[in-house]
């Protein structure tokens, strides 16, 4: 009897892969899976954080750029705004349009914020918007409504901009005003030259520095008005109303006939109730042939006595421990300009110092 031969054949099971490609991936432990997922999450979070940092850096750079341009606007307390650093070109006590501005702001609000420079003490120095600030202060005084008028929208400039640039900002804004007069621009140039913080001491050269945006002809007119305001500015109450042609003629006349200066002063001195028309008439008559014999208006026909020509004003600088003081000596006035807030000084010390000064020069 033959023995049956047995062949061992290994048949693959139905669910077992037959190729290497079909083989399952090695199973990872739960710990390995958690680590992998955490690493992926960490990469995603870092990518998001990097994107956020880039956006924040871009926003910060834009904020700095806008701040340098004075385009960052905030509400600033009126009491925190000072106006002593820059000499304004606006004539004091003769702003006919302030009432209109007050009414407009009351009804419609402020359409154009003022501009201020941040100070180290937390306050602000006004650069542009003297009339807007004055209107807000008047509204606060009239209404007592500090919620509405106690703070004013202001574009805040960073500290550090040089004084000449701040003056230019103010001047360039005001040059677009239709009502700004040659007398006001001339007084600004004069006061700029007298300011102890500025490097320029000559008013004519200050015109070139301040009014670069103005045309040559306008700068020439301003220089002519400087000669009038330098000699008569303290005596004129309505200088902004002097017509251009009259101012130019007056400048030429007082150069040729210096005796006109004391004559005009004599007419205006003590005439407190004079009007714009009265003052302009005095200047017009001074240019006529009969100026020396013209009766003073409102003085009962008393003739103006001729006086010898005098130097209208003397300007000089004095070095002091507090800095260089710019001094102006004129008829009835001695002015000292120094980069100090004299209101912060003890009043008794100021009085004692002035007493010694006056006793020394008397």
TrEMBL record:
One GO process term, biological-process aspect: chromosome segregation
Stretches with biased composition (Acidic residues): 10-19
Superkingdom of origin: Bacteria
Residue ranges annotated for the ParB-like N-terminal domain, each copy included: 74-175
Cellular component GO terms held in the UniProt record: chromosome
Organism: Gemmobacter lutimaris
Protein name: Replication protein
Entries under PANTHER family matching the protein: CHROMOSOME-PARTITIONING PROTEIN PARB-RELATED
Region (Disordered): 1-34, 291-314
């Amino acid at each position: 009897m033959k023995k049956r031969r047995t062949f061992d054949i290994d048949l693959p099971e139905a669910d077992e892969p037959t190729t290497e490609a079909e083989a399952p991936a090695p199973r990872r432990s739960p710990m390995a899976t958690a680590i992998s997922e955490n690493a992926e999450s960490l990469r995603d979070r870092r990518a998001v954080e990097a994107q956020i940092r880039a956006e924040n850096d871009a926003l910060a750079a834009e904020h700095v750029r806008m701040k340098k341009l004075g385009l960052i606007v905030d509400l600033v307390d009126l009491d925190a705004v000072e106006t002593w650093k820059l000499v304004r070109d606006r004539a004091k006590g003769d702003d006919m349009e302030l009432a209109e501005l007050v009414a407009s702001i009351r009804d419609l609000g402020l359409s154009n914020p003022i501009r201020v420079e941040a100070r180290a003490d937390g306050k602000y120095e006004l650069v542009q918007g003297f009339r807007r600030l004055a209107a807000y202060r008047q509204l606060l005084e009239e209404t007592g409504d500090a919620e509405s008028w106690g703070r004013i929208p202001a574009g805040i400039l960073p500290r550090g901009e040089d004084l000449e640039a701040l003056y230019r900002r103010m001047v360039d804004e005001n040059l677009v005003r239709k009502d700004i007069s040659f007398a006001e621009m001339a007084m600004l140039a004069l006061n700029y030259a007298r300011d102890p913080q500025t490097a320029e001491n000559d008013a004519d050269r200050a015109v070139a520095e301040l009014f670069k945006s103005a045309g040559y002809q306008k700068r020439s007119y301003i220089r002519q008005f400087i000669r009038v305001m330098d000699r008569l500015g303290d005596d004129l109450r309505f200088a902004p109303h002097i017509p251009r042609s009259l101012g130019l003629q007056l400048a030429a006349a007082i150069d040729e006939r210096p005796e006109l200066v004391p004559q005009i002063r004599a007419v205006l001195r003590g005439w407190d109730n004079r009007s714009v028309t009265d003052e302009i008439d005095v200047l017009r008559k001074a240019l006529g042939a009969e100026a020396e014999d013209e009766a003073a208006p409102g003085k009962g026909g008393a003739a103006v006595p001729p006086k010898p020509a005098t130097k209208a004003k003397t300007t000089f600088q004095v070095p002091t421990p507090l800095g260089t003081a710019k001094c102006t000596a004129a008829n009835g006035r001695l002015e000292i300009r120094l980069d100090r807030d004299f209101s912060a000084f003890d009043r008794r010390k100021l009085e004692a110092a002035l007493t010694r000064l006056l006793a020394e020069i008397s």
